[in-house]
Amino acid sequence: MAGTELVLLAIFFGVILSGLKGPIALASAQKILNGSLAWAFWGILIVIGLVVPLLAYVYNLHKRHSSIQLSQAQRSYTDMPIAAASVMEGKGKFEIMPSSLKGAHAGINPRAIIICDSGVLIGGLALRCLIVFAAIPGWNGLLS
User: Fold this and answer.
1) Do residue 63 and residue 129 come from a single domain?
2) Residue 57 in domain
């Protein structure tokens, strides 16, 4: 997701910097990319909001695939519905999913998930604020 957002931001600013959207849009984009708002764009949006979560996701994905080795008994669980696997575990308590099948977050540090998700939220907020704060008024107040 973060990789897609990086590509879309590059396309967005590429179109604006080409001059197709007019001189006001060009001035706003320059204010974001290398003007007074550049620190927020590069530091908060790009690094904290996109690059750090992307690198953490790739690292955790690599770590998960290299460290989790399912035993033969655990592999048999993957062919069953979740409820059947829960009943077969027979722990005497209600469990939606057995501990061996925790889904997409199995084997990932919960702190890393919180840091990544927080970074994405902070980056999204930064993007919205940057677009609002970089707006250069293009209307002179006259209707005709």
Assistant:
1) yes
2) yes
